[in-house]
Write a structure and sequence with these properties.
The complex is a heterodimer of chains A (about 325) and B (about 450).
Chain A: H1 18-24, H2 34-59, E1 61-62, E2 70-71, H3 75-79, H4 84-116, H5 122-129, H6 131-134, H7 137-148, H8 154-161, H9 176-201, H10 206-214, H11 218-246, H12 250-255, H13 267-277, H14 281-313
Antiparallel strand pairs in A: 1-2
Chain B: H1 11-23, E1 45-51, H2 54-61, H3 63-70, E2 73-79, H4 81-94, E3 101-105, H5 106-116, H6 123-127, H7 143-149, E4 159-171, H8 172-177, H9 186-196, E5 204-207, H10 215-225, H11 242-257, H12 268-276, E6 280-286, H13 290-293, E7 305-309, E8 319-328, H14 335-345, H15 348-357, E9 361-362, H16 365-368, H17 371-375, H18 381-392, E10 394-396, H19 404-418, H20 424-444
Parallel strand pairs in B: 1-2, 1-3, 5-6, 8-10
Antiparallel strand pairs in B: 3-8, 4-6, 4-7, 4-8, 4-9
Helix pairs in contact in B: 10-11, 19-20
Classes of the chains: A mainly alpha (about 325), B alpha/beta (about 450).
Keywords (chain A): Membrane, Transmembrane, Transmembrane helix, Transport
Main location (chain A): membrane
Protein name (chain A): Sugar ABC transporter permease
Chain lengths: ~325, ~450
Amino acid sequence: MARAGLAPTVTTTDDLSPADEAALSPRWRPPGYWPFVVPALVVVVGVIVFPWAFTLWMSLHEWKVGAAPAFVGLSNYSRLPVDPRFLDAVWQTLVYTALSVVLPLILGTLAACVFHARFPLRGFLRGVFILPMMATPVAIALVWTMMFHPQLGVLNYLLSLVGIPPQLWVFHPATVIPSLVLVETWQWTPLVMLIVLGGLAALPTEPYESAQIDGASLWQVFRHITLPLVAPFLFVAAMIRMIDAVKSFDIIFAITQGGPGTASETINIYLYSVAFAYYDVGYGSAIAVVFFLLIIALAAALLAVRKRTQGAAG
Amino acid sequence: MGEFSRGGPSRRSILASGAAAAGLGLIGSRPAFAAVDWKRHAGTTLEVNLIKGPRGDLLHRSAAEFTALTGIKVSSEVIPEQQQRQKIVIELTSGRPSFDVVHLSYHVQKRQFDKAGWLADLSGFMKDPNLTEPSLKEADFSSAGLQYAKTPNGEMRSLPLSVDYFILYWNKELFQKKNVALPTTFDEMMRAAETLTDAKAGTYGFVGRGLRNANMALWGAFFLAYGGRFLDDKGNLLIDGPEAVEATKLYQRLLTKTAPPGVVGFNWMESMAAFTQGRAAMWLDGVGWAPPLEDPNASRVVGKVGYAVVPKGPKDHAAATYGDGIGVAAASTKKEAGYLYCQWAVSKLMGARLLQAGGGVPFRDSILSDAEVQQGVKMPREWLDSAIGSAKISKLGLPVVVPVAEFRDIVGSAVTATLSGADPAAELKKAAEQYRPILERSEKA
């Protein structure tokens, strides 16, 4: 729909000379708003489109920093399915992401329900609860590294107080991912809590009143009223957490650097090693492209689940 | 043009350089910076890229003294090691680095820099009496330093700055309690570690790096002791031979039987924490950790730490050696001024300061063996002796190849896997098969 001053000018040709007609009618004129769009366009092309196109181009080349790039077609991509380290990294990324989404989601929802109720010092405690989210990840990681220390860490000391033997936490391949998820959960549960709390505040009170009259239990109220009503907020939280967890780097790198061995090496950590420690830019770019596709696939899967549940609810 | 090239120094230049040297604090009665026309590039500004740490910090802190000596202004950037390595490689690749002088980690970057030709040849400058003080000679650097600094063609592409030998830190109190003598061989070290381990009391005989990649520095010390060589004369990889397997078996035994639980994830920081808390009787690591061990605010073992040269192995007595150097970017337009900075950085004055604070060990023998310099060392005498002793048996602890990071990751993973029970021979074979094509590709590139 054309708006005055913003759309291509439409002119009747009755009162124009043939020369004017020739000059005006067949020629396309840029819309008047274009100058306003150009800066945004330049930025988008500069910081999103160009880097992506360049990454794709690099992924088709064998390019070690310091040497000239050589076109190798899809051979960087064909290395991926036979690279055991990459395959391990994919699996570890999925496990890490799943745990880092589910646990904060459960705990954050519970915390939101608690903080939704009225009790003394609620505001203060809510403030305290969200503190981990505000801390710098690398600083957190360094503190947790010492807390995890098998001999000197406070966590094993706390376990010893309740008679549990010392654990190896991030210092053993079998427990490293759950331990890292513990840090991730500690830091990001407050975010989920804030999102769900926002959702709870917006809920209507009528269904709760009806449930109370019908004699529903607390669990029934939560399961059949609260949960379906806050589901849209939970999906938002899950999406944010998923994207955040799948690309998590700082905490893992600062605590384990992907170790012990490669037990906590996620795609991001492996990608970093390939591109910035081995300077294999071509292969690193191929990993980046696949990583991007994986994030899109996960986000799409989450949206599909959301649509299906919405459909079922409708 | 410098005064010397006009036939000899003027009275003014002698007075000026003498005053500058006196102002900088002399070591002994000899001027530290005599004979060189230091002012020939006065007014120039140098961009210097340094690694964060005792060496880089010292140079950064003392830059004003260099300016007073030369009239050259210094703008230095000090960046943590990992990030600095990436930054300088990317900038040098671009052909237009933002720095004139660069601090490099030899054990990781030497071959890469040689192959790429990123650093200027300093050989000519070193022969120029107007540019180089008489005491700065190639022969003054330890053989490891020269191996690092010189290209296969004999060009001096950087000046060796600071060497890092792996030495043995030992807790005298724990040794005394169990009446154990300081081990002089690896076999004795294994036995001592077993005797000193008391898991119920929370004390262990040995601690060291188990974390992938970082563990290669420690493993290198074992490998060399078993007579291992990383590459043969033709550049073929030799890390799955009997020396490597035996070295890995000893590493595996020490770290699984006598080290604290969780050592598989220990880097130097966790190892040092165990040692400074008195939980480990021996720690094999770089020579630069004496200051925190002797700091009462950071350590519970102050005054109880013994320092020794690494024990003798079954085949060789070798101190695994790593180090860093300083050079001038080939793309710099201020090469002479940059060289003056490098020369000042490796000078006796700066080397002595580094050694005396315990922050590092200079590659130059004349500094290490100077009685006056030694007197000023704040660390225990044993520490200094271990550094001097290590210099005599120094061998490079990592292969001089371009893909060092891949080597450390791939072989490091294999060695780490042995700590969870994997077979050393099988793991090393697998690692060699995985790494060999990477090395071949890199050499062909």
